[in-house]
């Protein structure tokens, strides 16, 4: 540990005796650039080494996903407004240098996106009128193998910083008690970065933080699994980046997902920061993380809030939660009402079929063909990366893929559901010479 870290911890925290790191049975790897100090494992080190990585946008392109994940690393430090920050950067390999992000995506309405400052070799002197948590972004479309050492020298404040497998609950409570002049906290696992207000961190301080983070990791792993990300090919490896799950003070949003982040309004944090919330009542977070997995090729304009729940349902099943959301909310009855309409009145994209009724169609394909159907759909979409200009092209792509993956002519199924497409699509399906399914998937219901 460098002398600055020691002075900072000794003077500001008075934490002179290590409580040690709790050993974890988890096999999850630790975040690659965060090295907690040895005095207290709920604190980040002021010196980190960072390797250049592939950009979030490039990973999203590889995965054929709509939104890039969070291609930046948490530091465990906060910069107060109008305070001068001194950061030293030393090149260790290559010639590229990282950027410093000041602020968390969507954490505050007043600063929806962070300020991004390109760092230079040597000393960097930085101020920001709003301040915020600090992150390092070191990414490129084609990484060059660059590596740097970054020293946070002056101006930054440590925040309570929980790292799965490193931080003990006792350390977390001590940090929350003594680091009382910073507004936010950070929790980090193999797959997520959580950011919350100090207020909510205190409200949920008695939760099992290890378990919460493991559940978050499991949610993402399940959504990766239904996406066919089994690592068997380069295209089918999981996203290299973590997923940001941040509290937001913006009451315009209940929960939201977009580029680089998922965000949750302050009064919803029980669904993120508690074992029961994230593990049993976490449809909202599962849904938002599902948005980070959606593929554009088969998500036409009426499906943004539909195909996302293919992933939510997968988590619900894996967690063994019954009855399902569709059954509990009586959606199957609404679906039966829709399917009973006259042929001319059934329009899958029309007002008679809301997002939940449309979800039943996708779930019926799972009932008929299992996880493999969606795993193959994701894999083939990643391989083909079709350029589809409009809803009609996306509907055609999905319909043909559904038939070839299932090995069945699903024309009757799609007609039953009111797919209003050009008749040429059904001609293409017929030309595949596939047999009709023994059981029409539109007749399938949950037990």
Query: How large is the radius of gyration?
Result: 24 Å
Q: How many individual β-strands?
A: 17
Largest sheet: 6 strands, mixed
* Shape descriptor: elongated
Assign a percent range to the helix content.
Answer: 25-40%
Determine the N-to-C terminus distance.
59 Å
Give the structural class. Answer: alpha+beta
Low-confidence stretches: 1-39
What is the mean pLDDT? 92
Q: What is the topology, as strand order, of the major beta sheet? A: 12-13-14-15-17-16
How big a fraction of the residues is strand? 15-25%
Q: Number of helical runs?
A: 15
Q: What do these coordinates show?
A:
This protein is α+β, with helices and mostly antiparallel strands and 447 residues long. It is built from 15 helices and 17 strands. The protein has helices at residues 3-12, 56-63, 169-178, 198-203, 209-226, 270-273, 275-279, 283-291, 308-318, 325-328, 331-339, 355-384, 391-406, 411-416, 423-431; strands at residues 47-51, 53-54, 73-79, 85-93, 99-102, 115-118, 122-126, 132-137, 139-140, 147-154, 157-158, 161-163, 184-188, 192-197, 243-248, 255-258, 261-265. The strands form 4 sheets. It has a 6-stranded mixed β-sheet with strand order 12-13-14-15-17-16. Strand 12 (161-163), helix 3 (169-178) and strand 13 (184-188) form a beta-alpha-beta unit. The termini are far apart. 42% of the residues are buried. Mean pLDDT is 92; it is low at 1-39.
